[in-house]
Amino acid sequence: MIIAIDGPSGAGKSTLGKMLAKELGLLYLDTGAMYRAVGLAVLEASVDEENEEIVVEFAQKAKIELVGEPENLQVLLNGTDVSTEIRSAQVGQLASIVSTISDVRKILVEHQRRLGENAPKGCVLDGRDIGTVVFPNADVKFFLTAKPEARAQRRFKEDLQKGRTTTFEQTLEEINQRDERDVSRADSPLMIAEDAIVIDTSEMDLTEVFEQMVRVVRERQKMNYETS
Ligand code: DC
To answer: Which ligand 1 atom sits nearest the alpha carbon of residue 36?
Structure first.
């Protein structure tokens, strides 16, 4: 079973994706972490992120691995655990920039398909283009969204808990910038797949969203079972 979760940053995709993968015993793939790993590789090498040729070379050479259980997933870049480093706001912006390069997307999409197809029981993938490009035939497609202010508020709270110094206004500005880049890029922009179930999480708590998603998946599993 393949479950696609798409949506803008801060909508709760990764938290809910992990919860869903754990509940259903599926592999969890955070595809944003892969773009972030390429962003970090570029940052560490002090490469100009606008130089597409070099960025593509880095994406090709980078060995990106996601290991461990969904709730403590580790992201390895060339064998080094970079789970913390890839979460900085700077790497988030770089990820959003390198993700506009078609050849970078090709490399990572291929990697994601391979990992998803080889997962014995199936996979939950979260990203921006999972239901539209990576797995257009996914069994279930969710599109999680929320108002920018609600997403910025969540991100801001997380950042404070992690001891980062930032302001709400700065977080909101970054969210708006990333949204703009993610929806306006030419290759695989963030958009809602025709057959996606859209959930606006602005006014919902995590448990409510999770229960709704589990209900949808169980119904789909039952339908697949009855028609097979
Ligand atoms: O989900 P995230 O914030 O970790 O993603 C970081 C960036 O990577 C985001 O700005 C857009 C990009 N991305 C993408 O283009 N396609 C995906 N499937 C996942 C992320």
So the answer is: 6
Structure tokens, 35: 């773009």
Tell which CATH architecture fits domain 2-227.
Answer: 3-Layer(aba) Sandwich (3.40)
Q: What is the average pLDDT across 130-137?
A: 98
- Report CA(127)–ligand 1 centroid distance (Å): 6
pLDDT given for residue 43 in this prediction = 96
The pTM of the full predicted model, rounded to 2 decimals, is: 0.93
pLDDT band at 89 (very low <50, low <70, confident <90, very high): confident
Residue 178 has pLDDT above 90, yes or no: no
* Centre of ligand 1 from the C-alpha of residue 31, in Å: 7
